[in-house]
Amino acid sequence: MFVRAELKRRAKEVLSRKYLKLFVACLLLYWLGNGIGNFKIFQINFNFSGPTAQWLDAMTITLFGKTYSGLSSLMTLFGPLVLMYTLLSAAVAALIRLIVLNPLSYGLMNYMKKASTDEENANDVFRCFNQWEDLKRVALTGFWRDLIVFLYSLLFVIPGIVKSYSYRFVPYLTEDEPDLDPQQILALSQEMTQGIKLDLFVLDLSFFLWYLLGAVTFNIGTYFIRPYINQTDAECYLEVRNQYYGGTHENWD
């Protein structure tokens, strides 16, 4: 159990000393978390605003001296290409997320965690890239986390949300528990969040008005409140970790 007001007080105290550095870190974290969804190698957009049955069949295209006409011919020509590039784009995006974006995101989250104790170092963001074994462990942890949450989401939205809260502390544990393998990290995060998932949800919900303020400013304000939200999350992990290893929570007996 944790007290939301106390976590936010600690976050504000850290931000009062290091807002600019944490603001930059949150900008990078936001980009890493949201930019992957827009990553594409190739994309074709069709805009059929008119009577398609009349003009699509009259369309022609010349490729290497050969002319194709009619919608069916065009789809025959481009259908396999669209499929190939779509699959290639998805594969490359997944690979980049696996070995670059997830490790960097985890590094940035741990940077904010260390800011609480004045131990942050920009080099720590890239630390897992120094050793292949570290990168492999972090990448596999992120892969299993994303995969399991995705599979639970197929059972309807709520199971996926619950599972995502179970793995809330995975990014922090990848650094704090270097001797654990991916499955052990997932299990530890699940154990640490036992009995407090609703508290974590309420903590997120307590920022609703801040998100609303960001929305009415065309999302510009969101960039400025992210350090507050992310630092509070880091403070939450530190508090729960202290309680977990101190044996002060009844669900961890």
Structure, described:
The structure is a single chain. The protein has helices at 4-35, 52-55, 71-115, 132-153, 157-166, 170-176, 182-192, 197-205, 208-216, 220-246, and strands spanning 60-63, 66-69. By secondary structure, it is mainly alpha-helical.
Short description:
The chain is mainly alpha-helical and 253 residues long.
Quaternary form: single chain
- What is the helix content? 55-70%
The class by helix and strand makeup works out as mainly alpha
Shape call: globular
If helices are DSSP runs of H or I spanning 4 or more residues, what is the number of helices? 10
Question: Which value, in Å, is the CA radius of gyration?
Answer: 23 Å
Major β-sheet annotation: 2 strands, antiparallel
Order of helices and strands: HHEEHHHHHHHH
Segments where pLDDT lies below 50 for 5+ residues?
36-49
- Overall mean pLDDT stands at 82
> What percentage of amino acids are in beta strands?
under 5%
Strand order of the largest sheet: 1-2
Instruction: Report the span from N to C terminus.
Output: 14 Å
Number of strands: 2
